[in-house]
Amino acid sequence: MKEERGKKSYSTFLKENEGKIMLAITIIFIFLIIIYTNINEKEYYKKIDKYQGKTLGKVYSIRLGKHSYLKYYFYNNSKKYFSEARYSEFTHDNFGKYYRVIFNEKNPSESHIYLNKEIKPDSITLTKAGFKYVIYYDYDIPTNTYIKKHKWE
Questions:
Q1: Which end of the chain has fewer CB atoms surrounding its CB within 10 Å, N or C?
Q2: 141 pairs with which residues across the strands?
Q3: Distance CA 141, CA 153 (A)
């Protein structure tokens, strides 16, 4: 009896334990993905901790779904910068609101938006952050007139 167990080949062992081996490989693979994701996230936050520039940013586009993203813009030295964030914590309620943005002063296109607290700025704060008060006219078809409107841009 012992001789029969000892004579089993490697391929027979693999066939008998195929399910267990696949399960072990899957668990190891998932574990490695979790470790890799955790390391990348820590590296990202180490990187943004070095950013010195701070300003306000406005969310102008949100797409929820399989590939969710949030787009925002901010100003630095009178230049407008567009950026994108891929979070899972945002909703359509974030659209059109202002949040704190930190950015790399050497390369302002590298930025991070903090969505944990909305900022409700006044006109002075918006002007200091580089936003401009724009007046525009919208055509109203039923009255056949132009309606004066305004927004911060």
A1: N
A2: none
A3: 25
Rounded Cα distance, 23 and 16, in Å: 14
CA distance 151 to 132: 8
* One domain, residues 73 and 137: yes
* Integer Cα distance of 129 and 102 in angstroms: 12
pTM reported for the whole predicted model: 0.72
Q: How many domains does the chain have?
A: 2
Residue type, 73: Y
Q: Is 45 exposed, middle or buried (0-12, 13-18, 19+ CB in 10 A)?
A: exposed
pLDDT in tens, the chain (153 residues): 455 555 667 778 777 888 888 888 999 999 999 898 888 888 878 888 889 999 999 999 998 887 788 999 999 998 999 999 887 678 888 899 999 999 999 999 899 999 888 999 999 999 999 999 999 999 999 999 999 999 988
Does residue 38 sit in the same domain as residue 82?
no
Task: Assess whether 58 and 128 both reside in one domain.
Answer: yes
User: Do residues 38 and 87 share a domain?
Assistant: no
Residue 65: give the domain boundaries.
50-152
Q: What are the residues facing 129 on neighbouring strands? A: none
